[in-house]
Amino acid sequence: PPPAPEVAKPALRVVKAVDAAAEEKQKQDDLVRRRKAAESEAAAIRAMMNAPKKVMVAAKKEEPKPAEPAAGIKGTIHKKVGAPGAPAAPGSAAAKPGDKKSVKSEKLSSSWADDAAKKRGLKTIGSGPAGAGRPGGGGNWRAPARGGRGGRGGRDDGGSNFTPPVEQQTIEVHVPETISVADLAHKMSVKAAEVIKQLMKLGQMVTINQQLDQETAMILVEEMGHKAMPAKLDDPDAFLEEEGATAEQQHESLSRAPVVTVMGHVDHGKTSLLDYIRRARVAAGEAGGITQHIGAYHVETPRGMITFLDTPGHAAFTAMRARGAKATDIVILVCAADDGVMPQTKEAIHHAKAAGVPIVVAMTKIDKPDANPERVKSELVAEQVVPEEFGGEAPFIGVSSKTGQGIDELLEQVLLQAEVLELKAPVESMAKGIVIEAKLDKGRGPVATVLVQSGTLKRGDVVLAGSTFGRVRAMLDEDGKATTEAGPSIPVEIQGLTEVPQAGDEFMVLGDERRAREVATFRSGKYRDVKLAKQQAAKLENMFSDMGAGDVQTLPLIIKSDVQGSQEALAASLLKLSNAEVKVQIVHAAVGGISESDVNLAIASKAVIIGFNVRADAGARKLAEGNAVDLRYYSIIYD
């Protein structure tokens, strides 16, 4: 029994080996078969890809069979019956339906090579089967035009796309120092693609948003047949939406109220005169009874509205009086009848004459016992202000701010002068004007008093004023009431500027905040360069003067004021106090309250801090006390 299973084991192993060999052979056969199938399939695909070309070319050689003429037809105008070589046109009614289809398919099908040939030239009559039977054979059409598409627009039906030439209009294009391709195209009223194409001809590859310098842009404008005018980047007229025409040309100009500036010597009664006209106690609100910054008011009279600017009379406020004269139409020159012509009276006359504005003389305090109007007249004649009764142009009116004597006559004269001047301004256009005064308010931020000279200023407008810009968040009239818009000759206080503008800066409304930011940034960079140049020059001057002067005591000062004009006046007045022994040095002068940073600067420079109508906050006071910094507060420039 034991040997039997031993004999059976080898037999089983042999069977398994045979099965493995058979499986291997089957796999090899299967692989060969699949390879052959793949090769045959690839050959079929290649044949199929090559086949259409042969078919399309072969189809070209086939000619449609001529149709037999129908019974009863004796012939046509051109060919007689039975004439040799007169096959009917394949497109005729006698052709078989099958022939029509073959002709149509032949028209639609073409090889790639034939497509290129089609683009090169226009088919002539008789060149294809469709035109074989047409009258005129193949000699009546003109030769194909050179270039891209043949003939007029490459149309086989003989149609025409001809458009008459249009005379190109020459536009005067103001080109700023940098301009984008898109903006330049808009200014020339052409597509941006045309500008890019022209620049490619000039050897420049640009994109639609790329910035071009002024020289390149001007060459391009001239190349495109327009007139190029250079415009500075900080010239806002280059960015106005109403390009090519001023606001006066675009919009109807309407009569506006006269802007009247009251000028004269200190304490001669300017503000009291305005006080009586306004029927409000303005003078009592002024510290020490003297005006320290320009006040702007508009007054309704029976004959119309008048806008008044009240300027300071003190010697220190020269720049503010100059600004008042610049913004005005008529100057009321106030001269006290008991005091006569004084230094600031003469200065006011010079400002008015420099600005080229008419003068109306108001001789105040006429009710005083020692008033002498004739003396005032003779002194003013010496200053080239001649009364009408002496053959001059200046009306002289005696007024009293206490009794009201002569006030109506003064207003009458002002309105009469305004009628002669024919004052007009567009109302619907974007606003332009001048910044009368500016300050940094603790709660409201930068605040500017502006006088609108043309157009209408609205809440939400983007305003550019000097090197600052911003969107008008709020507008207040002279009484502190909120308003939404201000027309020509109306003074308003605006909030929303990024920084405190310089008093006297011109402001204007732009349609685009991005452009306003660009101009403001450019201007601030220019101002910074000028300031640095001045500082450098001052350093050199100081160095040479110190070498010659020996030991001179220096008094460093930091000035903080409530408004821009007062800060300028105070700095100028203090610098004039310098003498041979003590030299005044203004370390820093700015608008706003006294802060910790001002005290830190005073500690570093050993300076005295002067606050004019402003005070130090709690943190600054504590820091100043701890470091023995001298803080001085003043509200009147006399002090």
Could you give the topology of this structure?
Layout: H1 3-61, H2 97-108, H3 112-120, E1 172-175, E2 178-180, H4 181-188, H5 192-201, E3 211-213, H6 214-223, E4 227-230, H7 247-250, E5 253-255, E6 259-264, H8 270-278, E7 295-301, E8 304-310, H9 318-326, E9 330-336, H10 343-355, E10 359-364, H11 373-382, E11 396-398, H12 407-421, E12 424-426, E13 432-441, E14 445-454, E15 457-458, E16 462-465, E17 468-476, E18 485-486, E19 491-497, E20 506-510, H13 513-549, E21 553-561, H14 564-576, E22 582-591, H15 596-605, E23 608-612, H16 618-626, E24 631-634
Parallel strand pairs: 1-4, 6-8, 6-9, 9-10, 10-11, 21-22, 21-23, 23-24
Antiparallel strand pairs: 2-3, 5-12, 7-8, 13-14, 13-20, 14-19, 15-18, 16-17, 16-20, 17-19
If you had to describe this structure to a student in words, what would you say it looks like?
It is elongated and about 145 Å long. Mean pLDDT is 74; it is low at 9-15, 85-98, 124-141, 150-158, 241-245, 280-285, 288-294 and 313-317. Helix 4 packs across helix 5 (192-201) and helix 9 (318-326) packs parallel to helix 10 (343-355). The protein has 16 helices and 24 strands. A 6-stranded mixed sheet has the order 7-8-6-9-10-11, with helices on both faces. 37% of the residues lie in helices and 21% in strands. The protein has 639 residues and is an alpha/beta fold. The N and C termini lie far apart (142 Å). Among the domains are: 97-131, no CATH class; 172-231, no CATH class; 257-422, Rossmann fold, CATH 3.40.50.300; 432-521, Translation factors (Elongation Factor Tu (Ef-tu), domain 3); 551-634, Translation initiation factor IF- 2, domain 3 (Rossmann fold). Strand 21, helix 14 and strand 22 form a beta-alpha-beta unit.
